[in-house]
Amino acid sequence: MPRPSARPRTTTPPRVRELRVRNFRALRDVEIKDISPLTVLLGPNGSGKSTVFDVFAFLSECFEVGLRGAWDKRGRGKELKTRGADEPVTIEIKYKEPGYPTITYHLSVDERNGRPVVVEEWLQWRRKPRGKPFRFLEYREGKGRAVIGEQPDADDRRVEIPLKSADLLAVNALGQFEEHPRVAALREFITGWHVTYLSAESARVQPEAGPQEKLSRTGDNLANVIQYLAEQHPERLERIYQALRERVPRIDRVSAEPMPDGRLLLKIKDAPFRQPILAKFASDGTLKMLAYLVVLYDPAPPPFIGIEEPENFLHPRLLRGLAEECRRAAERTQLLATTHSPFFLNGLRPEEVWVLWRDQQGHTRTQCVDAMERVGELMKQGAALGDLWMEGFFCAGDPLVNQGEPPEGP
In whole angstroms, what is the distance from residue 229 CA to residue 236 CA? Predict the structure, then answer.
């Protein structure tokens, strides 16, 4: 199936084009290339889907709370590094800003006396298609240099700016200064990521009243975001209601009402009834669908959205539509999801799905469905991805077959 044509530079959001990870739990050496605006990871339990998802969460948290907080949260080097690996954890992303060459961001982290250190961090790009890669930021354990300028080149001035400690990220530190606009753009891109762990239980809480622009990772401020949209973007909220009614026809609308004690009460009105019900009595599926739509219809979407297993608590017949909503949202942002659902897969295209499995050494391997020749042929004849997966054409993603090198499908 041909890939969608590129959008004009003026409307194309920043994108992660490639990801390479080494020594991050089961990801001994994993590379995902040609990442599409909507990317979905498929595989059996323990195949590494959630680990790839967590790579993005880890990198985002490094910028948000610092390397040490993100490292310690995951059990430090003992739990985070691949078993038997002596080399550092390495994350490398290729990222494309509209109007600029592709930038490669490389981060290697290891542990010294129980504390994480940035072993190596650099940024590079090719100013010309056939030119040599040029590193305009290079740091090791808090010491290094960066090139000043809008489009840093070899002839531009390099400045040495030592960091306070070896666990600080240079991109996070230097990205706060005007003289490093490309570094600042990457920092803004990563700090804007929204890697969600939405929970229906969290959406039921009654938070303090007050509008909030962005949904939290767990969705515990859903009522605050509904209040914000009602006040600032009523037309966008109406579009969310319309999309929700298409998926859950009995739902009329949702409101967030301040209470005398200062909390915010989320109410959901069912079309046949005059009085709305409290969100705490609504179904898990209704709350999850509402939370997803709030994220996907964000008036100013984050540059990257991660959603883990969106099928949880949703009726199977809703999932194809949710996949289509994700693709529409991916015109304005980049979206990564993990799934076990054939119904969600039925709404996807081969270039949007990557299959993960473990090899004989226990390390994660990956393959894009678009590279599976027989799958492409069957898709052209009208087959759906989820049906092909359930019929055994993605043997590497089947928990009932040997997990090693992916055998050929039936």
Answer: 7
Q: Which residues contact 380 (CB under 8 A, 6 or more apart)?
A: 1
CA-to-CA separations, 192 to 66, 155, 181, in angstroms, rounded = 15, 32, 16
102 C-beta neighbours (distance < 10 Å), count: 14
- Residue 120 and residue 139: Cα distance in Å, rounded? 6
Instruction: List the chain pLDDT tens, one digit each, 410 residues.
Output: 333 333 333 467 899 999 999 999 999 999 999 999 999 999 988 899 999 999 999 999 999 999 999 999 999 999 999 998 899 999 999 999 999 999 999 999 999 998 999 999 999 998 777 778 999 999 999 999 999 999 888 888 889 999 999 999 999 999 999 999 999 999 999 999 999 999 889 998 899 999 999 999 999 999 999 999 999 999 999 999 999 988 887 887 888 999 999 899 998 887 767 778 787 788 888 899 999 999 999 999 999 999 999 999 899 999 999 999 999 999 999 999 999 999 999 999 999 999 999 988 999 999 999 988 888 889 888 899 999 998 888 866 666 665 555 545 55
Distance in angstroms (rounded) separating the CA atoms of residues 5 and 318: 28
231 three-class SS: helix
Residue type, 4: P
Continuous H helices in 180-331: 181-191, 200-203, 222-232, 234-247, 284-296, 316-329
Pairing mode, strands 38-42 and 334-339: parallel
What is the rounded distance in angstroms from the CA atom of residue 203 to the CA atom of residue 215?
A: 10
DSSP H or E run through 76: helix 76-80
Look at residues 165, 296, 181 and name the one whose alpha carbon lies nearest to residue 229.
296
> Which tokens in the block code for residue 21?
């990870």
Are the CB atoms for 145 and 153 separated by under 8 Å?
no
The whole-angstrom separation of Cα 278 and Cα 271 is 14
Could you give the dihedral angle defined by the CA atoms of residues 318, 204, 217 and 296, in that order, rounded to the nearest 10 degrees?
A: 40
Those residues whose C-beta lies under 8 Å from the C-beta of residue 197, and which sit 6 or more positions away, are: 217, 218, 308
Contacts of 257 (CB under 8 A, 6+ apart): 264, 265, 267
CA distance 342 to 364: 21
- Phi, psi (5° rounding) for residue 181? -65, -35
CA distance 209 to 213: 13
- Residue 314, class by beta-carbon neighbours within 10 Å (0-12 exposed, 13-18 middle, 19+ buried)? buried
Burial of 55 (0-12, 13-18, 19+ CB in 10 A): buried
